[in-house]
Amino acid sequence: MADEGGIKIITDNRKAFHNYFIEDRYEAGMVLKGTEVKSLREGKVNLRDAYAIFKSGEMFLINCHIGAYEQGNIANHEPLRTRKLLLNRSELAKLWTKSEIKGYNLIPTKMYFKAGIAKVEIALGRSKKAFDKRQSTKEKEEKRSLDRVKRNNR
Question: Which domains does the chain have, with CATH numbers?
Fold first, then answer.
């Protein structure tokens, strides 16, 4: 979509910012098949219901939908398969200790190409309650109305 200093954004997970207080962000590589990379280049990806978990000391991306490649043959990938995420050992340890705290989740917020390599941004987020979501919406509406008034006064 947008090209910002060698980064081509494939997709954003805007719903994550509505449902979670985002605290830390980490960049992770992904173990992908060839047809998955081709589908990413076409923008056929959905992060809305995706999340990351730890299994035996490694991090995996669950429920991330990467659509099937149209020109793919029998060896085409499964759209909702579990994908391994690649992080440094120190980052994995830090995320594991923080994610064990109640209320914290690992959410993918963005997927992009950086120097031709597919990356995903994993965020450590704390779940918002209903009143937190209403408060966030209220603050956004107030900011919009202030911007509108400033724009009209010019």
Answer: 7-128 (2.40.280.10)
